Automatic annotation (TrEMBL), chain A:
SUPFAM superfamilies: ATP-dependent DNA ligase DNA-binding domain, DNA ligase/mRNA capping enzyme, catalytic domain, Nucleic acid-binding proteins. GO terms for molecular function: ATP binding; DNA binding; DNA ligase (ATP) activity; metal ion binding. One of its GO terms (biological process) is DNA replication. It comes from the Bacteria. It catalyses: ATP + (deoxyribonucleotide)n-3'-hydroxyl + 5'-phospho-(deoxyribonucleotide)m = (deoxyribonucleotide)n+m + AMP + diphosphate. Keywords: ATP-binding, Cell cycle, Cell division, DNA damage, DNA recombination, DNA repair, DNA replication, Ligase, Magnesium, Metal-binding, Nucleotide-binding. This is DNA ligase (ATP). Residues 305-436 form the ATP-dependent DNA ligase family profile domain. Its EC number is 6.5.1.1. Pfam families: DNA_ligase_A_C (PF04679), DNA_ligase_A_M (PF01068), DNA_ligase_A_N (PF04675).
Automatic annotation (TrEMBL), chain B:
This is mRNA 3-end processing factor. It comes from Roseivivax halodurans JCM 10272. It comes from the Bacteria. Gene3D superfamilies: Ribonuclease Z/Hydroxyacylglutathione hydrolase-like. One of its GO terms (molecular function) is RNA endonuclease activity. InterPro entries: MBL, RibonucZ/Hydroxyglut_hydro, Xnuc_lig_assoc.
Length: 532, 338
């Protein structure tokens, strides 16, 4: 696996995507078909099944390293990655080998049927013949969570460079539910059979955030607008008499949302719709808060009660395929008109309805409409150029999300915890509180929004101003006020404050505000009443 | 029962028998200083005592101070205490301070490194009853490769950059780490340039007889692009600034013990991270503690809670002592980029 380790090192050492792409392309040019297939699989989120629990791994690693288990456990949050922690504590390898990536993947796939003692022997044996980087990668394969700075898009681009194939065509081949067991490198990449996988969705087209005023987009006449819903972006694929529901993360969610089985009654074969999956409040005729949908996402099989309480449907945005024909090159306005014709006349209780277009005469009118988004449980509006094709990935220019400004509240920091991974050693995870009389009531955590420099400053401050430690959590002297920005607020009996925020983050360090001037629980309750 | 040899006060580590402090962080009358880094050698004390080798840098950094110096191994009587300074292997002139009162021996480690680096004075274990030890890297994930293998990595990186027409900008602390790196790189690869902060210390150490390769300070009027494949040594804070962009195409790197962690390596967003520290690694700390023969271990800065817990589980009598060290300009990830 030395070539794969060298690839990882090359990619990990740089932040430049061109350098990463080149290193990956070189790997694709020289590696064996089996290694290539696994590399594609790994970088598109497909992992070998877990053969051991992380608890077992920790125990075995601690024993091999000759340290007590608690010491490994204490080191883990500081390193921030279990695979890395184990690779770092193990003694230097006793022997050296250079077996290919596919060999080690087979090695760990062969573990599943074995007795636990035998699994342990084989894993320790692997550690004893891998160098530090190889060990880290081997552990990553064992523990899952394969995030090493190479996006699927970058991998696809490198593969396109190495094979001379078109990037978009390759991206389509890599979509869907294939596994390295069911295909070969040849059948997946080299053979041209667009019908090979009827369930395959199209690569999603993603919008950029609009930061400039909409006037920067030119005349409003060229644009369509619709609500930006707070659900899960998905594709409904109906082909070969079957239906498949994909999330934007390319997770197959068909079984989680049995509601969509009915769509086969309405939609002909060869139909693909892009839309937002949302839990639907039929009475109010708007989506339910995201928390309701979240309950559904969490469950592979849905209890009847929940199915009734949080009925799911898709708000259709776009028609990508009709009669088996790929419509993506057509202008959005044309696709949208076809979508309206196709699903505009479905019964009221169908699990599919149009996401309405917003009427607007000019940008000012739209700006006023946008300001009312929260009343419809929307996050803002989407702007789509009428003549835009359906591209793949996040591309600037034709599609924009124009979100509402977030809600904000000024809060006092009361607890701090060190981050993990890239942020190990910095205090980055904070708990914030608002005033309830003389008491500070915690109401949210936040991890992001500060600059690296601010994180360093607050870390130095936390170290000197810790009042009490509870394991990794430090209670700090209430001193600093931060503006917390968030997208939504809901009642939550599980939280002391009675509210839960959506996407909270630190938007500003209020050096100008003493802690006494932070907001109160009453302010928070007022926001709940207005927007909950 | 008599007073302990050393006590821990809000001004620092104090010796009642000798009425002096070791590396105090608030102004005191008499301060014994282990080494010249800013968190150990602070301004404002009335009288200082440090090794002869540490003296020039302390004067350079602290200006006019009342400084008395002492040779390594030399014994001196201060009040009721016998004191001596012994090499700590951290940076040139760095010392552990041995303090004996009525036959009981305590040693304050200051910062230390057990591997000989061929540049500063080699660490010497000192037998004692009680040992006050740093533990900056007191976790088993921190183990260092030999200096020779890290030197080879650095030279490879520099040589490759030079061959491809790039400058190699290496971020390292201006006192200690920078000079250690200068002493181990292969001068044959190309010219070596320095930032003013590094060159200032270079001059002082050269005058003391420490051997360093030829370096050239980058001045405001220096044509930084006129050198072929140079190695540029600069404080970490200079990386990514307009100063660093003067060299044109370049590759940047840091050398620090924290580079052992992938997360930190990536956060620093240099192109490379070399794992090289002037502090002892996990095995170095344990080896040093064993060699003192001490029963009582006081751990000061670093992963103190975890390290003390481990020492206790292994039969030592270990305690955590809160100090204000550890905002060390060498090897502290929090402050070093500021």
């Amino acid at each position: 696996m030395k070539d794969f380790a060298a690839l990882f090192t090359a990619v990990d050492q740089t932040t430049k995507t061109t350098v990463k792409t080149k290193a990956l392309a070189q790997f694709f040019e020289t590696a064996s078909d089996k290694d290539k297939l696994w590399t594609i699989a790994l970088f598109s989120g497909r992992r070998p099944k877990r053969a051991v629990t992380t608890t077992q791994l920790r125990e075995w690693a601690a024993e091999r390293a000759g340290i007590p288990l608690w010491l490994l456990e204490e080191s883990y949050p500081i390193v921030g990655d279990l695979a890395e922690t184990i690779a770092l504590v193990l003694p230097p390898a006793e022997a050296e080998t250079d077996k290919p990536l596919a060999h080690w993947i087979e090695h760990l796939r062969a573990l599943a049927p074995l007795e636990i003692e035998e699994r342990r022997t084989r894993i320790v044996a692997a550690w004893d013949q891998l160098d530090a980087t190889e060990r880290f990668l081997f552990n990553k394969l064992l523990t899952g969570g394969w995030r090493i700075g190479v996006s699927r898009k970058l991998m696809t681009r490198a593969l396109a460079q190495a094979t001379g194939q078109d990037e978009a065509a390759l991206a389509l081949k890599l979509m869907g539910g294939w596994t390295p067991d069911g295909v070969t490198y040849r059948s997946l990449i080299e053979e041209h059979d667009p019908q090979a996988d009827l369930s395959r969705p199209y690569p999603f087209y993603l919008a950029h955030q609009l930061d400039d005023p909409p006037e920067s987009l030119g005349t409003s006449k060229d644009w369509n607008a619709e609500w930006k819903w707070d659900g899960i972006r998905g594709q409904l694929v109906v082909r070969g008499g079957d239906h498949h529901v994909w999330s934007r993360g390319e997770e197959l969610m068909t079984d989680r949302f049995p509601e969509f089985a009915r769509t086969r009654d309405f939609l002909p074969d060869g139909t693909v719709i892009d839309g937002e999956i949302a839990a639907w409040d039929a009475e109010a005729a708007m989506p339910m808060p995201f928390a309701m949908l979240q309950q559904r996402i969490g469950r592979k099989t849905v209890p009847k009660k929940l199915l009734a309480e949080a009925r799911v449907l898709m708000l259709g945005y776009d028609l990508l395929e009709q009669g088996g024909e790929d419509l993506r090159p057509l202008p959005f306005a044309e696709r949208r008109a076809r979508l309206d014709t196709l699903i505009g006349t479905l019964p009221e209780d169908a699990p599919l309805r149009r996401s309405p277009l917003i009427d607007f005469a000019d940008w000012d009118v739209l700006a006023r409409q946008r300001a009312t988004a929260r009343e419809f449980r929307a996050e803002g509006v989407m702007l789509k150029r009428k003549d835009s094709p359906y591209l793949s990935g996040r591309k600037k220019g034709d599609w924009w999300k124009w979100k509402l400004d977030p809600l904000v509240i000024d809060a006092v920091m009361i607890y701090a915890q060190q981050g993990a991974g890239r942020r190990a050693n910095l205090f980055t995870d904070f708990t914030f509180a608002v005033w309830d009389g003389d008491a500070l009531v915690p109401f949210t955590k936040a991890y992001s929004g500060l600059t690296d420099d601010e994180f360093r400053k607050i870390t130095a401050w936390v170290r000197k101003n810790t009042v009490e430690r509870y394991g990794p959590v430090r209670q700090v002297k209430p001193t600093h006020v931060f503006e917390i920005a968030f997208e939504g607020i809901q009642a939550s009996p599980r939280h002391k404050s009675g509210v839960a925020l959506r996407f909270p983050r630190m938007s500003r360090w209020r050096h100008d505000k003493p802690k006494e001037e932070a907001n109160t629980l009453a302010d928070l309750k007022e926001m709940l009443a207005a927007y909950g | 029962m008599s007073d302990p040899v050393l006590t821990f006060t809000d001004r620092g580590i104090y010796c009642p028998a000798g009425d002096f402090f070791v590396d105090p962080w608030r102004p005191v009358d008499r301060a014994l200083i282990t080494h010249g880094h800013a968190d150990h050698a602070r301004a404002g004390h009335s009288r200082y005592l440090a090794t002869e080798a540490a003296g020039p840098v302390m004067r350079y950094r602290l200006g006019e101070i009342d400084l008395d110096t002492i040779r390594y191994g030399e014994r001196r009587r201060i009040g009721g205490a016998n004191v001596s300074f012994h090499p700590a292997g951290h940076i040139p002139g760095s010392a552990q301070i041995r303090i004996e009162v009525g036959g009981e021996v305590w040693v304050v480690s200051g910062d230390y490194k057990t591997e000989a680096d061929g540049f500063c004075e080699d660490f010497e274990p000192v037998m004692c009853h009680s040992f006050i030890s740093e533990c900056t890297f007191g976790l088993p994930v921190f183990t260092w490769e030999s200096q020779a293998s890290v030197a080879a990595e650095i030279n490879d990186w520099w040589a490759r950059n030079a061959a491809e027409g790039r400058a190699s900008i290496l971020g390292a602390y201006s006192l200690g780490k920078a000079q250690r790196l200068l002493a181990l790189v292969d001068e044959g690869i190309g010219p070596i340039l320095t930032h003013g902060a590094v060159e200032g210390t270079n001059g002082i150490l050269r005058a003391q007889g420490y051997r360093l390769p030829e370096t050239r300070q980058v001045l405001p009027d220096t044509d930084a692009k006129s050198f072929a494949g140079p190695l540029v040594l600069a404080p970490p804070s200079a990386l990514g600034t307009p100063w660093a962009r003067r060299f044109g195409a370049s590759s940047s790197a840091f050398a620090s013990g924290w580079m052992r962690l992938r997360g930190v390596r990536r956060r620093r967003s240099g192109d490379r991270g070399f794992v090289m520290s002037d502090h002892a690694d996990w095995n170095g700390l344990i080896g040093a503690i064993r060699e003192t023969g001490a029963e009582n271990i006081y751990v000061t800065h670093g992963y103190t809670d975890i390290f003390a817990k481990w020492l206790n589980s292994e039969g030592w009598n270990a305690q955590v002592v809160p100090t204000e060290f550890g905002t060390d300009e060498d090897d502290d990830v929090v402050t070093d980029a500021a």
